Prior knowledge:
This protein has 3 domains: about 5-85; about 100-245, Rossmann fold; about 260-505, no CATH class. The protein contains 23 helices and 11 strands. It has helices at about 10-30, 35-60, 65-70, 75-80, 80-85, 115-130, 155, 160-165, 180-185, 200-215, 235-245, 250-265, 280-285, 295-305, 315-320, 330-340, 355-365, 375, 380-385, 390-405, 415-425, 435-445, 455-465; strands at about 5, 100-105, 105-110, 135, 170-175, 190, 215-220, 270-275, 345-350, 370, 405-410. The strands form 3 sheets. It has a 5-stranded parallel sheet. A 4-stranded parallel sheet has the order 10-9-8-11. Strands 1-2 form a two-stranded antiparallel ribbon. β6 (about 190), α10 (about 200-215) and β7 form a beta-alpha-beta unit. α6 packs across α11 (about 235-245), α12 (about 250-265) crosses α20 (about 390-405) and α22 (about 435-445) packs antiparallel against α23 (about 455-465). The two termini are about 50 Å apart. The model is unreliable at about 1-35, about 45-90 and about 500-508 (pLDDT under 50).
Amino acid sequence: MKEPLLWGREDKSWEGLMRMSKNKVEKLKNTVTVRSSRMNLWMIRATTSVILWICIVQLTAFGDMWGPRVLKGWPSCFTQESAIMELPSIPPRILPPKRVYKNNGYLMVSCNGGLNQMRAAICDMVAIARYLNVTLIVPELDKASFWADPSEFQDIFDLDHFITSLRDEVRILKELPTRLKQKVENGFLYTMPPISWSDMSYYKNQILPLIQKYKVVHLNRTDARLANNGQSLEIQKLRCRVNFSALRFTPQIEELGRKVINLLKQNGPFLVLHLRYEMDMLAFSGCTQGCNSDEVEELTRMRYAYPWWKEKIINSDLKRKDGLCPLTPEETALALRAFDIDQNIQIYIAAGEIYGGSRRMASLAKNYPKLVRKETLLEPSELQFFQNHSSQMAALDYLVSLESDIFVPTYDGNMAKVVEGHRRYLGFKKTILLNRKLLVELIDQYNNGAMNWDEFSFAVKQSHADRMGGATKRLVIPDRPKEEDFFYANPEECLEPSEDDDTSRSTV
Length: 508
Ligand SMILES: *[C@@H]1O[C@H](CO)[C@@H](O)[C@H](O)[C@H]1NC(C)=O
Ligand SMILES: *[C@@H]1O[C@H](CO)[C@@H](O)[C@H](O)[C@H]1NC(C)=O
Ligand SMILES: *[C@@H]1O[C@H](CO)[C@@H](O)[C@H](O)[C@H]1NC(C)=O
Ligand SMILES: *[C@@H]1O[C@H](CO)[C@@H](O)[C@H](O)[C@H]1NC(C)=O
């Protein structure tokens, strides 16, 4: 129990092997006078060791893909060339050196929520593990959320890349060491949800002592557990690094994403519309603008069926006027037209099934006939693999959203926010951040004749001039973290400074 757990320890076998082979070479030099048969034996052993050693050194230099394979066994050594042929798109990279630190224990985490909420949480948990000097066990993904996706971490993210690319910051293991694993299997595991929006001092003062006491602590909620602001620059940069480079989708998802992007690019510019007009969203939010009475009833039934959706009695009109409803497809069509977005542009709908189907999509389709979705661009056989894995579908939409010429989310959920932030990171690519409260007010005025089209369009454009995903200061509201800008929507600390710094969103 008391042995110091030193991260970097498994390296010793490597170093040992290297030393051993050198010793053998030394011995070989000193044993020229021994019997020739024994000499041959030494020769064979020494040569084998040296060859193996060279092989390892070369393989480590090939990049992160290789590190874990080498650790698993020698055979990869001899299939090196063919394997490289299969993976032409991954540039060779030198592995960062491992960070050596005294391990304070193990952190297990179970993420909750949809893909993008979990993604942000994984970044936070890496940062927490790093600053507590603990070992992180690969996060468990939520399989019981509304989306009920059975995918494991490695079904969505490139697991080996995640582990090796962060090894200069924190040790990440696929599972607990055997002894601790057995203990956990026997039911001994300290589990708790950390307090939301905490800063690192909470983790240092409250969580670290628990980890030291119990050796393993399991955090069973991960959404918004780390404050947006007031963290050191190193922590913020690490959150970004996990997000933008350590978390890479599996090659299979990346490949399909590239395919969709290429199909779109062949036909010119494209806009990704994250049309969050899906049944779960409407039932949860109680937004029923434009729904018929059967639909209102169905959505209400669904809301009552989910006990953890706390809000049951909802006034849709008030909520919409407060800007808290996702735009309807009809409102979205008006907004896009008001922005003078070319009616010939391809619009990729990044969403699940649109509630109300083609009836609700009619006005959008009339204004923007080039509407596409992954289901229309790809063969069913190509998507079959992803079909029952909503997170993998979401990952595909995520990749396409990043590459689009314009990204328009109709609601600010987690996907909208993380894509917004990522696009800022990629050079402030255009993201139209709709001010829904103002927009629905303008739409109502236009629809009831109080404004003509030109007035409406002008008002929409003018009020959104500084909401195009450019450089802005992140809104900070001490003591009201829920109302602040989400760190991941504008990871300022990680962005290239730009000249026309716009601080308009930084005032309360
Ligand atoms: C973590 O390790 C570093 C040295 O690598 C040390 O300076 C720091 O105080 C340690 N922090 C904790 C919380 O153990
Ligand atoms: C997390 O763990 C605590 C303490 O064991 C438990 O009360 C709570 O229900 C768990 N929450 C979740 C979301 O599993
Ligand atoms: C997906 O799930 C549905 C029902 O849950 C099932 O009928 C279908 O065969 C599944 N599809 C695949 C590709 O696994
Ligand atoms: C984290 O993830 C997504 C994309 O990787 C990005 O949009 C978001 O802003 C990122 N957050 C940070 C911390 O950089």
